[in-house]
């Protein structure tokens, strides 16, 4: 409906309203200049910051000619964006929607959201819509045998999972892998988590913190916790949620990447992360980091590698990607056989000193 109104240029923007009700001001409430369609959706400071976040941080935006995008007239702008590939169309329509919602919150509720909060919400919305479309479109490839997919070129993929029995028995784990499925690093940790969701969130936060520490710029993150979409989507509404500090930490960490993609996978495909999370129950120490696949996750890891062989056309990408990622990403590097890597991570709202032990490294 919004898109239909946009295409026909009949959104009730401020500039149009005085012709209907004289007392209404034609001025944009966000910046006090005249508000027409282009101003509302593209040129107002808030809207343009959001578009810039999108161009800086998402892969789907690389198809867009920025000069055209920021200089086209309203009709050309709409036509140009709706004639791009489907990935961009989904991003464009999702963005339009969120800009519209944010603008209306300012006009009618006098609430001003931070552009980055708007971006976070639209990004997560976009990820979930893309996932739904992907699942609907590719049932033949994905349905018969669930397979873990490697990240795209120039990205690392982090799979995370939480494990929870009760307050004193909770943990999580995660694994970073490259385009050929190669292992970069993994972790298992114990958490004080009151809920299964808390364990999941702590694992995500820990994985993101590690990625930031290792200066990983482009990250795909996979989790099976779909409820996180809702929580991260409505950051304002989760203010009083008992997990709001960690939800906000996750949202802040997401802003530290050049590009981050959030995707959802079925639990049955998230096996390696699941093994790492389960291992936390058996651990003596609070945190373990693994620079090689540990024995208890090896079967799942090799199963994923085996699964990659069944994916057509992946080999070429893998060869190219292994070289490039190896050169460009700062990841765990082998030092000596008994190296110790230390990381300092907050668990829940309680700062915890973490002892890190490292799996033995192969030369
Ligand atoms: Zn404005």
Automatic annotation (TrEMBL):
PANTHER family xref list: OS05G0353850 PROTEIN (PTHR47723), RNASE H TYPE-1 DOMAIN-CONTAINING PROTEIN (PTHR47723:SF20)
Name of the featured protein: RNase H type-1 domain-containing protein
Organism ancestry: Eukaryota, Viridiplantae, Streptophyta, Embryophyta, Tracheophyta
Encoding gene, per UniProt annotation: LOC130470113
Species whose genome carries this gene: Spinacia oleracea (Spinach)
Database matches in SUPFAM superfamilies: Ribonuclease H-like (SSF53098)
Pfam families, per the entry: RVT_3
Highest taxon listed in the record's lineage: Eukaryota
Domain RNase H type-1: 159-279
